[in-house]
Batch of 2 targets.
Target 1
Amino acid sequence: MIRSVPRSRLFDALYMVYLVAFFVYLALPLLVTAVFAFNDAPFPSLPWQGFTLDWYFADGSASADGSAGRTGLFHDDGLLAALWVSAKIAFWVTLVSVCLGCVNAVLFERLHFRGKEFLYLLMLLPLVIPGVILGVSILVFYSGMANDVSAAWGIELDLFRPGMTLVVMGQVTFIATLSTLVIAARLRKFDPQLEEAALNLGATPLVAWFTVTLPWLMPSIFGAAAMAFLMSFENFNTTVMLTGSDTPLTVALFNRLREGSTPVLNAVALLLMVGSALLAALVMGRSNK
Amino acid sequence: MKSSASRLSLWLLLTPFLLWIVLLVLLPHLQMVRVSFQVRESWDTIAWGVEQYQNFFTESYYWRTFLRTGVMSLFTTFLTLIIAFPIAWYIARLARGRSKSLLFMACLIPFWASELVRTYGWMILLRESGLFSSWLQALGWVDGPVEMLYNDVAVIIGLVYNGLLFMVVPLVTTLDGMDENLVEAGYDLGGGHGTVLREIVVPWAMPGIVSGCIVVFMLTLGSYLTPVLMGGKDSAWFTEQIFTQFITRFNWEQGAALGVLLLVLSSVIVWMGLKISGQSLRKVMG
Amino acid sequence: MDSDLFCEGLVRRFGANAAVDHISLDVPAGTFFSILGPSGCGKTTLLRLLAGFDKPDEGEIHIRGQRMNDVPPNRRPVNMVFQHLALFPTMSVGDNIGYGLKRRKVTLAERRKRIARVLEQVGLPGLENRDPQELSGGQRQRVALARCLVLEPTLLLLDEPLGALDLKLREQMKVELKHLQKQFGTTFVYITHDQSEAMVMSDRVAVMRDGRFDQVAPPEELYREPATPFVAGFVGDNNRLSGALVAIRDNLAEIRLDDGALVQGRVVAGELEIGQRAELFIRPESLVLSADRVGPGLSVMEAKVRTTLFDGANSRLEAENGSRLVYARLPQDGSAPRLPPGSAIGLAWDPALARVFGAENP
């Protein structure tokens, strides 16, 4: 089972086959999705009709043979708008979650107070609540409140109607927990003597925090930010409950998919994968330095 | 030493945390529970009652789906663990240096795509006009197109796929921290493969196993896209019913009640899992 | 007043336990002052009081005549080399050393100049742009020193900084630290549990136990004239023999050991009563092996050879006196007789080299 314990040839061979099968299983759906973003056919399936970039760049005008024109991703106003909405949501979610994560990490790793254990458990709570429920509860509370206020006093709290604000709130609920865990794990490895050393060399506590502790946390902050951005961008279950008229990308894609699949969806999917991979590579490149 | 300065900084740091937990977690969930006990008598009068919960137990469709979702989630979690463990073992104990980090990175790849994209990929592969069907026809093994989508097996394939990453990562992390001498000592003292695995490896990996299982179970139980897009007519998922109540029927009271039930189900199963394995939430998640 | 550090009646309590218990000390400028004690004796707490990371419950701290009690750590003219050095991992060597200068708003050009100079002084010229993690243990040590010395502090505190180094490097750094201290002329307050570090480097050593100083003296005096049984046992190797006090004559105490032998040693201080239990400390190198060359006035004790422990210049004889183990130095110049295990020998010493104290727990 481990290198130093002898294994039979057959066992090794079977293990290898299993590994290969596993990684094929892992890669296949994504690979297939990516490849069909370039198939010159109106439907993502075999046979392969040749390579095209239409699903990105076609502008919707009728083609030479008179067939209905294709609209590529970069000319699809609906998808582009959804992409922009998602980006805005992800930006706010990232900002709020990372700030909360930093504050919480300091709270739980550096301070001692009564009831800390209990509050820590509360902090973990969003991880064991299904995403749908997080969305539903926020919808019920805030949207219900907006309804009641409107009925009682005629004041419209549009902020709390389904829309971007609620989506951000819903996603922050659990993404903040994750970013807290990431940043707290790094802070746990910080030697508090470094801060004392900074004080000893003449820094005020605030300067010590910004010149010594924060640079130490930076890799985890970037990591948490990348994770928060991705999770927000990809989230569906919480988002779909809280979204209003401006639909984010995953919801828009879902609606499209129910109408039927077209290679434009593959094009979007590939774009998302490449974007995520770049983001991941960027963060890892930074933390390896 | 509790000076006023440290008291002030405690409150400064505690405030954002409390705002987040109270305003985004506690109050909304309490309100959801409250709404689930409201009975709408006419458009502006509300009474209290358990009508929504009665509906759940009298409508067999509700509780059948509820049970089905719970059982299938448990099964999926178990399956994911079985599939992921050898992989995690290989990465943590047998792979070396570069190939180790490469394999680990490869396990993270599905995370680069959202659940929707992953499900979409499986749809392209499994549906009647999909790749598997075409390949089987090209090989001459079947005569006509085969539909492999829209059944429970397809749903489980998709669910396991979604969960794998969250199982492999904690497993690799705990197995990586295991001292190989433990395993060697196990063999040295006369243990076979089975006993060493059962009495040494698994107890050591328990925190990772429980942590992975909880995350995968929560994801599976709460998933929506995969069962909806890959499941058949009679393979409904409980989350679908919550969505239906809220989005199509605007019946918040019923939806809230179903939500509370799902929350109770997930809490009970997570709690039981922790009790049976003797772990604590703090240890496996924090 | 030319004392750099002056403390009076310092007390720091944790609950009922006083980690620092009425300590007073006075360190003249330019001194290498060590505080030596076993772990848990309160020396780290004392150092943290001096650095300002902790506040005394009672007592005064003055640095060069200035009262420091209410001065925060970042405003004290005191710098510290931490036990694990606490070099900032996110900064280069140059930025580490420049950190304190930057806080003092020294211009960039001036900072560069001073960093280069101090690196030269500690023997690491031109390493400004390296990462601290790339350096060896000894080099990191010097960077940590340079980071403090560049600020020209009145007082430099060192918290067992050699603990993490391996033995050989530690020996080398001991000597180097002493030279650096002389070169910079800064007052060092060095805490350690390693008596050899304290002895080699210091001008004065305070031996600390349970929050108090047992003795403050130059290293040689500590070794030759320990003021308490604890110091006698803690500083250097010592044999401890116990018996009953029979008589005191001219500072010489006569003790009947448990095996009946009548031996002598010098009494230092304190009131001893005839008949009480007493302890006699005699160093292994003061024991003479051959019984037949006993001169007049020497004390003799019978012992049985157990084994010889060969360790070059530190070779020792392990012998039994009753149930008590006694060690004697075995000179490796060929003068030592053959000592088969089990053979009986006499161990003799000059009473002037032995110290007698009243037994601690009668």
Note: Chain C has two domains: 3-232, 237-358.
Target 2
Amino acid sequence: MSTAVELRRVGKSFTSTRDRRTEHVFENFSLTVEPGELVALVGASGTGKSTLLHMVAGLERPDTGEVAGAGVDGARRRLGMVFQQPRLLDWLSVRANVEIALRSAGLDPALADAALRDVGLAEYADKYPSVLSGGQRQRVAVARAFAIDPAVVLLDEPFSALDELTGRRLRLLLQDLWTRQSRVGLLVTHSPAEAVLLADRVLVLAGRPARVVREYRVDLPRPRAPEDPELFDLQRRVVADLL
Amino acid sequence: MSLRTRAPAPETATPETGHAGPPLARGASFRWRGPAAAASFLVLLVGGWHGMALAMDSVLVPGVDQIGAEVLRLVSDPGFYTDLGVTFQRVALGFALAFAVAVFVGIAMGRSPLARRFFEPAVLIGLTVPGLVWALLCVIWFGVALINPVMAVALSSAPALTLSIYQGTRATDAQLLEMAHVYRFSTRDRLRYLWLPSLAPALFGGARLGLSLAWKVIVLVEIFGMSSGVGAAINGEFAAQNVAGVLAWTVLFAVVMAVLEYGLLQGLENRAGRWRKVAAV
């Protein structure tokens, strides 16, 4: 079975502009995401989780090694990404924000309405994003990411800027979308609860250069309930690793 | 001197909000007091001028009645509209050329440090050369051909426009550029849906400054080297020692520019910023 995303012996370092010190964030780091799998990366701030996601997204190049996989590299790349902030074009309508992603992926822009319906925003299609709440704007970002039938969905702390209740609703929405159609995904989060609720595998990153210090497989069927005792137990173990 | 500016930090969204924006409509009293204040200034200017004309009693300072009569004579003459149209066409062509170059160079300077260093001297030189010099040089180099006023307008307005677009580019939200990269926006979509809307405030600010420079230079070029247009007409009145005629042309030219500013440019700006108003309601 071919892998969906593969980081092969990746190295990445940054040089501080202040004291010219070089920080090796990754060295010979390898990671494989199988088809249909959602992998969550958790770890303390500064461990390189977002850097890793940015390398998969093509926003940063690894110094050594390579990022490969169907839909990730080269001309075949088709990524859906949900950032911490919605990153919408405020001067376009909600529908036009999704349409432009569809058109860029070579798909029919008319699919935007169905994507907005899936996230419960059909009636807001003609509004400007700036009149929506933060949670609604993030729903538009989720609709945009899923509308393009992505080979890989990248989630970079997608709900961390939202209040607890709104974040919870969006996690359940995301789980619902994932249950309807299995996709490949990488989730970066600071929330162990979010990681165990959504992911098939949770990787705990630590150290510099970063390495996977613990790996948890979440074999519970979807949809999962946030109050599930098994999830809670798993969450407790992840928290213990992070502390 | 350096053109380097600090790009402002991108706005961050506040959870479950999104109604940030300018304060809502000012009081109704301000709506009337603003135009009334401007009208008061104009009344004072006209009254002051007329008082000065009466006090000096000189052909060099014509009264408001004489200037008004000249204005009426000009607007009833078809030649006035021909000259105005010719000048407007020259400015439009020169400004379009400046705009195209400035968008390309300004964005390149904002995106690439190498491009910034390469074009920086050109922009600085362009900003410091007086419009009068461009007008003279273009008359010398291009004679009476159409390229003369077009180049003079382009050379005088492009540097200010480029600087404005460069600064706007630096302030463009880098997070949106990342999003466009991930979703593989085409170059056309990036320009149309990301760069131009992001740069709209800079473009309109630069356009105002560039146009104001262009009007001044075109009149000089037409005085020095052309036989048609507003500048040539003003030169004709000057040669005839008709001070009221010179002032009448100046007044009418200013009125036309004001109509363009408030009618065209501000209309376009309101249209481009429609989404901001919706957000503020």
Note: Chain A touches chain B through 37 residues (CB under 8 Å).
